[in-house]
Amino acid sequence: MLNDLFYMLIAFVLSALFSMAGSGSGMALIPILNFLGVDFTIARAVGLFAGATTTITATVMNVFRKSVDVKLLLPLALMMLLFAPFGAYCSQFIDQEILKFFFMLLLFYSATMMFFGKQKTLIHYTTRWILYFVGAVVGFISGLLGVGGGNILIPLLTFLGYESKKIAVIVSFVVPFSALSSFATYASYLQLDWLMLLCVGAGAIMGGYTGNYMMHFKLSPSTIRKIMALILYLLALKILWHFI
Questions:
Q1: What are residue 240's phi and psi, to 5 degrees?
Q2: What pTM was estimated for this model as a whole?
């Protein structure tokens, strides 16, 4: 029980921080749980659940603010809903050390984009088909590696010409579709500790609400991204040490 409460505290802190950028906390929570002794596959399932609860909280608040453009978000949400479970299903047939290695690369990529990535438009795409393609690719990768996909979507949507505030709304809306569908797939073939899930989910919800409030009224986005990047770099280096 004490371990579960400790996991809840970790989920709260990470969710509060990551939700300020419209992102789920799963990418940071997964390696931390694994370092604490949780199996990597189980940690991915728990991270998906936590990331979904964090972004659902942000989405509900954005709906009340009437800042959600459903027609724009539907292509991404639909394709991520379809392809994320497929990625999660495929993950059980791949060696976990290989998945952990690619997860480490994703951490380095996400941290680098957060810390050094230029937040400006490079190209403009106004057609919807590109969103279907992006949703399919990101959905599959997120299901395979057990992440919600927010940290993959953010630099891609920036590259396609979306504003940072709109990206935060988009990510918080579509990530639950990939995260929950992937989680359901993992839950179909894993034995999960539901008390731990309940505690982590509760911490993520409280952290998501806190972080969403602070995003709109307190901290600057650049400061948030740099803090998140440093955390991801440290986690990636810890995994790299495991391989060395």
A1: -60, -40
A2: 0.84
Residue 244 has pLDDT above 60, yes or no: yes
d(CA 45, CA 181): 11
Structure-token pair, residue 58? 């942000």
Dist CA 64 CA 66 (whole Å) = 5
Residues in the chain: 244
Contact 153, 159 (CB under 8 A): no
Instruction: With beta carbons less than 8 A apart as the criterion, state whether 198 and 49 touch.
Output: no
Question: What is the separation of C-alpha 90 from the centre of its chain, rounded to a whole number of angstroms?
Answer: 19
Which letter does DSSP use for residue 75 in this model?
H
Burial 14-51 (b: 16+ CB within 10 A, else e): bbbbbbbbbbbbbbbbbbbbbeeebebbbbbbbbbbbb
Question: For 93-145, what is each residue's pLDDT tens digit?
Answer: 999 999 999 999 999 988 888 787 655 555 555 567 788 898 999 999 999 99
